[in-house]
Write a structure and sequence with these properties.
about 110 residues
Length: about 110
């Protein structure tokens, strides 16, 4: 299974970004797997940001992003998303998606004025 994140970049505080994670692989049924977004800031441990169940009916968020971030998925496109609004300086990190025992390479999100 291959996971590839995209959508990261530089944004001002209060701005928004939408991350995508496209999954591919031989004999891989994306809709069977829960998916998660993690992030790792410089000098800090990797932390779980959000998770979504296989059918997308259940989601969970870290307290630090509740009300600002939304995880979603499109099983027809084998893609999971992370909509990030009201971004703060402390959201700066490399964001990774994970699922089916696989990890993507990550995408950098930098929040700076």
């Amino acid at each position: 299974v291959q996971l590839v994140e995209s959508g990261g970049g530089l944004v001002q505080p209060g701005g928004s970004l939408r991350l995508s994670c496209a999954a591919s692989g031989f004999i891989f049924n994306f809709s069977m797997y829960g998916m998660r977004w993690y992030r790792q800031a410089p000098g800090k441990e990797r932390e779980l940001v959000a998770s979504i169940s296989s059918a997308g009916r259940s989601t969970n968020y870290a307290d630090s992003v509740k009300g600002r971030f939304t995880i979603s998925r499109d099983n027809a496109k084998n893609t999971v998303y992370l909509q990030m609004n009201s971004l703060k300086l402390e959201d700066t990190a490399v964001y990774y998606c994970s699922g089916a025992s696989s990890w993507g390479p990550g995408t950098q999100v930098t929040v700076s004025s």
